[in-house]
Amino acid sequence: MADLKITNLHKHYGGVQAVRGIDLEVASGEFTVLVGPSGCGKSTLLRTIAGLETPDGGTLEIAGRVVNYVRPRDRDIAMVFQNYALYPYMNVFENIAFGLRARKTPQAEVETRVRRAADMLGITPLLDRLPRQLSGGQRQRVAIGRAIVRNARLFLFDEPLSNLDAQLRDEMRSEIKRLHQELGTTMIYVTHDQIEAMTLADRIVLLREGKIEQAGTPLDLYERPATRFVAGFLGSPQMNFIPARLAQSGGGWAVKVGDGTSLALPARQREGLADGRAVVLGLRPQHVTRANGGNRPGHQRLTATVELVQPTGSRAYITFPLGGVPTVAELESHDVQRPGEHIDLDLDMNRAVLIDPESNRVI
Amino acid sequence: MPLMRRPGTVLAMRYAAAIVLTIFFVFPVYWLFIISFKTPDEIFAFPPVWYPKSIQFANYRVLFKDGDAETVWNSLVLAGVSTVIAMALGTICAYSLVRFKTGGENLAVWIISQRMMPPIAIVFPIFLLYVFFGWVDSFHGLIILYTAFSLPYVIWMMRGYIEDLPLELEESALVDGCTRWEVLWKVVFPMVRSGLFATAVFTFVFAWNDFLFALVLTRTEVVTYTVQVTHYFGGQSNFWAKIAAMSVLGTIPVFFAVATLQRYLVRGISMGAVKG
């Protein structure tokens, strides 16, 4: 059974439509990540699920019960906030126990459950400390402890890692993933960080301007984006977008980019192809590699002049012009030395996407 | 060539100035205290007796024997009860103003504007009203009045403190299983504790020091100590000993309130000051 079912949900603040007709089902035990740029409505959606906002339209069901007007405390949810929301005047133990005490749990049970949660998160030695005596990472662990101690049906995370530095963020990300595997609880997680979304999610829901742009598994969205927005949002460095025109060449199809370079498309059947039709060619930096000998089907060779090299360690991002557009490729760092170099590149056209420039949808 | 002043001299001058100023301001208080412990002869002696030979409690004994000291108790009850009521109601109102935007943008300004009204301007209508209700010379009459007068101040101050609270703390408590009232009790009150104490002290002092309303609205039953002191200013003579002793009695409770809550007072006042 779905733990959460949202039907045609609307929410506005004054004249601003924050959420515009969202339909979403989250299965029991699923880790769903709501991701999108700021202002896309992801936090509003989460807060509406929590009951901190009342929806203006549509229905919200948790475990088969409509909860539109049910108070947050009666929704059987736990929530982790961006700023930890720890009570500064209580020690760690009392902070974690807060929810249990609010629900009049017997003292003995509070004791065991808080200790078990603290154990899981490795914060047992900190139980007597006050929040101000903790580091950012420790505070976030306490905040997570306060959520898991409750055994709620639904866990909500509102950008829990965005206040942490990069290294801690990686660490806490794996921690959250491990917790989900151990607990098997339904989790809904809001972030604007596509790496967090890709690594954590069973399913990503990508939001834009209050609507769902696309939902699916991380690989689904990465490999089969439905729109230019999805294609550009996921993946780092960002997908290259090169304006082009379709052209028939020989028995198949090709795209012609601005400088006249023709790139053959793989033979697989595509709908909506017409000679001379304007398209945008979407090509991920990872799908451009250094050419090495043999010509594989669907791959296209190209000699390019390197304009910019950005080494990142084992990999290097190089920029080269393609059809007049600066295009990024991610190569092995030893593949390229310096700008101005001529280099043979291999473009994996099997994985390229064609986008209609009018509708911005993938063809 | 400019005169080179030695740092020691500068320091000495500063200390001297500080001592002179301190004596200037503290002397009246000292004189009040010392009069309350003097015999009548010492009070009127010339040259003045700067410090009495022996401490006399006779002046205080008279106040307690005649029942005059009860007026301090009356003031304590009036100021204490009205402070508790004003703090409870005012904090709840302030919370409502901040979190639920009760009354829109301007209600808070309307409320504080009540405070600007000169008490003398309304004391006569209130007197007539109280005569009509039969509330003159009663505890509840003055408690209601003091509460009404303190409320705007409490609401205004507490509003500032509550606005500074991170909303997430309350939301987290709501999700964790608290009702709004529990959020107030378990999250908001502990978080604004310093502000609560600071505001309470000022509210208490306002009611404690009130003279005008107490003078007009009391007769014989609920006389406050401020009014009682004026009874010692006679047509022919002033009872300096009683005035002094009564004034000391009236200072003690406030002194203790401020001394014990000093820690919160300083933090509470500066908490409020940070706000724009």
Oligomeric nature of the chains: heterodimer
Query: Could you say which structural class the secondary elements and strand pairing of chain A correspond to?
Result: alpha+beta
Distance between the termini of chain A: 34 Å
What count of helical segments of chain B does DSSP give?
14
Annotated CATH homologous superfamily of the largest domain in chain B = MetI-like
Task: List how many beta strands of chain B DSSP finds.
Answer: 0
List the keywords.
heterodimer, A: 363 residues, alpha+beta, Rossmann fold, OB fold (Dihydrolipoamide Acetyltransferase, E2P), 2 domains, six-stranded mixed beta sheet, five-stranded antiparallel beta sheet, 23% helix, B: 276 residues, mainly alpha, MetI-like fold, 14 helices
Give a structural overview.
The complex is a heterodimer of chains A (363) and B (276). With 363 residues, chain A is α+β, with helices and mostly antiparallel strands. In chain A, 23% of the residues lie in helices and 36% in strands. Chain A has two domains: 2-233, 3-Layer(aba) Sandwich (Rossmann fold), CATH 3.40.50; 240-355, Beta Barrel (OB fold (Dihydrolipoamide Acetyltransferase, E2P)). In chain A, the strands form five sheets. In chain A, strands 6-7-8-3-9-10 form a six-stranded mixed sheet, sandwiched between helices. Chain A has a five-stranded antiparallel sheet with strand order 13-12-11-14-21. In chain A, a hairpin with a 2-residue loop joins strand 1 and strand 2 (16-27). With 276 residues, chain B is mainly alpha-helical. Chain B folds into two domains: 7-56, no CATH class; 63-274, MetI-like fold. Chain B is 75% helix and 0% strand. Chain B is built from 14 helices and no strands. Chain B has helices at 7-36, 40-44, 58-66, 70-99, 107-113, 119-133, 139-163, 167-176, 180-191, 193-209, 212-217, 225-230, 240-260, 262-274. Chain B starts with 6 loop residues before the first helix and ends with a helix. The model of chain B has no long low-confidence stretch (mean pLDDT 88). At the A-B interface, strand 6 and helix 2 of A face helix 8 and helix 9 of B.
